[in-house]
Each structure stands twice: as structure tokens, then as C-alpha cells.
Amino acid sequence: MADKAQAGEDRGTAEPSSGISVEQPLWRALTGYRVVTLGYALAVFALGYRDYGRPLLGVGYLALLTAWTLLTLPSVSSAERCTGRFLTADLTMAVSGILLSSLADPAGRVGPTLPSIWVAGPVIAVAIKSGWRWAAFGSALVGAANLLEDGHFSRSALHNVLLVCVASIAIGYVVEVARASERTLARALRIEAANRERERLARDIHDSVLQVLAMVQRRGTAIGGEAAELGRLAGDQEVALRALVTGQRQEGAGGPPPGAAFDGLLSGERHAAPGDPDAEIDLRTLLTLAAGGPGGPVTYAGPGCPVPLPADTARTVAAAVGAALDNVRSHAGGPAGEPAAAWILLEDEPEEITVTVRDDGPGIPEGRLAAAEAEGRMGAALSIRGRMRELGGSARWISVPGQGTEVELRLPRKRGWKEAGR
Predict the structure, then answer these.
(1) Domain at 254-412: CATH code
(2) Which of 48, 57, 139, 397 could be cross-linked to 110 through a Cys-Cys bond (beta carbons 3.0 to 4.6 Å apart)?
(3) CA distance 381 to 385
(4) What tens digit of pLDDT does each residue of 3-40 get?
(5) Neighbouring C-alpha atoms within 13 Å toward the C-beta of 267
């Protein structure tokens, strides 16, 4: 039984989840149960001492049981410490006490056995450790000893045996279900973490490598000659990389925001002020840089008061705005190649912060965003929407053919964010 119980231990602890185990409170409860029931067994024996035919036999067993219970408390503190050998010895101690009861009380004047309800502790330990099947075996062993000691198979003895059996099997089943749920949760958390990391890498790839490859392709085609061949190769690599990103279910990212200063704030200083979780950035500053500065190619309008946000949050919002502006530059130009005009509007409201990016380009044909996502062009899908979703916000596109496009980014305010000017 020791080897099989040890195998059950390995199955039960092969894939623990992060955080506190759901079964740990059961071990703590079992520890308390063993101590309390030991005290109960000693009290019952003391009250019926005069009725025992061989009280010294009971004294000897209970002294041994007391020492065993106190010395083995660490063994019932966790699944790792509760070994198969201990469970075998613990059940042996329980069964021995039950069988010795008829010798200590040959006349049957005292009702309970020497260990009394303490015997349920070893069975519960087996249930928590190895599941309901081994719990059924342990409870059957203890139950058979009780019926043998009773001799008459009385209704009370059968009732006690059935109660221990049902309780231990139920506990074992619940523990097995909890362990399975814990393993499922652990796998789900690992998958979520991996998906988040892949999404971040895909965004970085889209914001850098894919944009460079696309630029090389366009410039090479325009120059011609050997540059055209270089552009074709760059285009092939861009298609292959997009397919890789899409095939791994990565939700890529949008283009890089304009301006060297803006690039520095978003990448080189992405983790500015490490160790200072309260570091904040005025969102107006980042959006002004995204617009190219005062008098730049993009018109910026916002509140007169600062709009402070946690540094990472502000940079993520600004990166989404930069991706929207990159889409304007790439797709919203006029038929003669002239760039579309663009505007950034920042609204700081008590419940949420709204950033709107508008342009006067030709608009987005119906279904174009879904088609672009299917082709692996994930700029709108996650460079904009994905970033806002990570922050608990949203992104919405409003486009009228011939009248331009509006991208509305909404970010709910969270507790602890400062509201300047209020």
C-alpha cells in the first residue's frame, strides 16, 4: 500500500498550480481534528476507567496513541510530508486500538473503542492524500475492525462504519476534483501568459521589422533596377513574417509613431523610473509629440490641465495613437499622393479618458478591417484595439466613404489615478 499510496502522491502533486493549494486548508483541519479527537478519546477513557476489565492495557495504548499523534503532526501538515509509509502505520495504529478494545473491556461495559472517533483521522488522511478509491479501502479496513470488535454487528456499529466510509469517500472525491481544477487553472494561466508574451512580441515585430520591410519594398519598387529586386525580397520576407505571426495566433501591432522624441519615450524609456510604481506621465505631452510637436503635420487639441496617467498606461495609449496615425499616413492619402490631414482630440472626463484620431481621407471600405486581419495585417486589430483591451479600454472605428475615418479610443479611469484640476 505504501508504494501505491506514494504513486497517488506523485499523481496528486505532479502539476501544482501557482499560489496556495486548494487542499492545504484540509490538511490544517485534519491536524486540528487529530488533536481534538485524541483529547476526546482520553476523556472517554478517563470517565469509564472503572468499567474496564483491564484498564492498564487501555492506559498503555492511549499513551502510545498520544505520543504517536503529537510526534506525527508534521506528517499531516501537507501532501509532501504525508507519505505512504506514514499512512500505513497510521491505519495500523487505528486498527490495533479498535481490536485491543475488546481485550481492555472484555465485558463490553464501555461503548466506544479505545481510540474512539480518532480512527476517522487516518482514513481522512488517506482520502486527502490518495483520493476516494484509497479512502474506500481505508474506511473498509477500519470498518471491518469495528465490526469484528463489536461481534454482534449492531445497528450503531454499522451506522458508524457507514458514516466513516461515506465521509471519507466524499472527501477523497472532492480532493480529486479540486486537484484536477487546480491543474486546469495552472495550464490556463501558463497559456494566457504565453499568449500575452507572443502578443507583445508580435506587436514589437509589427512596429519595427514589418514596417521596415514594407518601406524597403515600396522604395525599392519606386527606384527600380537592383533596388526593385531588393524590394521584392523584402516583400517576400514581410509576407512570410506576417504569416508566421498570424499562424501563431499572435495579434500583431501597428506602426511606429512619428518623431524621434516620441520613439524614445515609447521604447528606450518604456520602463522609466523603475521601482517607482507611482511614476506618471502627462498624456498631453506624448500626444503632442505624436502629432509632431506644435505646428506639426497633425493637429492636436486637448484640455488645458495635465492629464497624468501611470507611465506604462500613458505610453500604451500613445502607442495606439501612433499606430492610428501610421494607418493615416499609409492608407488615407489622396489619389495624387498628397497626405491626408489628421487631428488628435484628447478629452479628460471624470469617468474615462477619450482620445480621438480623425482624418479626411477616403475612409475605410466596409469589411476592410476584417479582411486585413485575415491577411495577417494586424495593425488595427491589436496594435490599436489590442493595446486598449490590455488596459481595460476599447477602440472603435467610424468611417464614412469619402469623408474620412475616426478612431475613438476610450480608457476608463481607475481608482488611484489623479485627476488634475479637479
Answers:
(1) 3.30.565.10
(2) 48
(3) 6
(4) 444 444 444 444 444 455 677 888 889 999 999 999 99
(5) 16
